[in-house]
Amino acid sequence: MKVHVTINGVNYEKDVEPRTLLAYFLREDCGLTGTHVGCDTSSCGCCVVVMDGSRAVKSCSMFAVQADGHEILTVEGLAANGKLHALQQGFWDQHGLQCGYCTPGMLLTSYALLKHQPNPSEADIREGLAGNLCRCTGYQNIVKAVQQAAGTLGQPAVSNA
Amino acid sequence: MSIQAKPLHSVGVHMKRKEDPRFIQGKGNYVDDLSFPGMLYLSLVRSTYPHAEITNIDISEAMKVPGVKAVITGKDLEAAGLGWLPTFHGFD
To answer: What are the tens digits of pLDDT across the range A91-131?
Structure first.
């Protein structure tokens, strides 16, 4: 089946088997290996990409053909003109990654989270990232990274939910 | 009297990691990101028993499956000198 997808602002037109998952389409058909496959059970969130600007989706749980006509943002599309996105800067500054495998998913889920909640509390961030697992960091610095990007780092951890 | 400790090398100093830029931009080059012409794929077969002794592994049926290049068992590792790692407890 023919699939037309705009990924990171670039139009891709590919012919794929209908059973091709979006994650593998991105990685193998489009050569964008920043999106990772971590679990085969839809649990880990390493595969998260953002659809149509603000919707975080697990690309392992979606067919490529379901993305036909849609816009996809992957980790490779976060930096603009060589300048890191505030979230990427946050993860770097706050030591929000160790092996880096979960990081693309963390970045994109956070991206969507901040689109919906530009001023999230720590509790909001932790809940928003509930679908993203990390085996290395213990999450504390990931939360700080998102807070830095949101401009709320250092504020008291009071939930505004 | 107060003592000012001078930072020893990098201890106590906030440092940004050098490897992060490629990870945060999706350029990590993990094993699954590698691609070579004619490359093979490895699949692990794990024990279905938590505590058991392997008496035999019969690879003959697996070797008949089209596309299978090799089935590697403990015997092959032993022959290659990649046997058990020594530990203090050994075998109880």
So the answer is: 999 999 999 999 999 999 999 999 999 999 999 999 999 99
- pTM (2 d.p.): 0.83
- Which domain covers residue B71, as residue numbers? 24-85
CB–CB of A146/A134 below 8 Å? no
Model ipTM value? 0.92
**What is the C-alpha to C-alpha distance for residues A98 and A104, in angstroms, rounded to an integer?**
12
Domain with CATH 1.10.150.120 in chain A: 86-150
The count of structural domains within chain B is: 1
Instruction: Using alpha carbons, list the distances in angstroms from residue A152 to A64, A120, A155, B15.
Output: 36, 8, 6, 22
Residues in A lying within 8 Å of B, measured between beta carbons: 27, 32-37, 74-76, 78-79, 84, 88, 91-93, 95, 97, 100-101, 103-104, 107
Range A2-77 classified under CATH 3.10.20.30: yes
**CATH number corresponding to A86-150:** 1.10.150.120
pLDDT tens for A29-68 read 999 999 999 998 999 999 999 999 999 999 999 999 999 9
- Report yes or no on B72 lying in a domain: yes
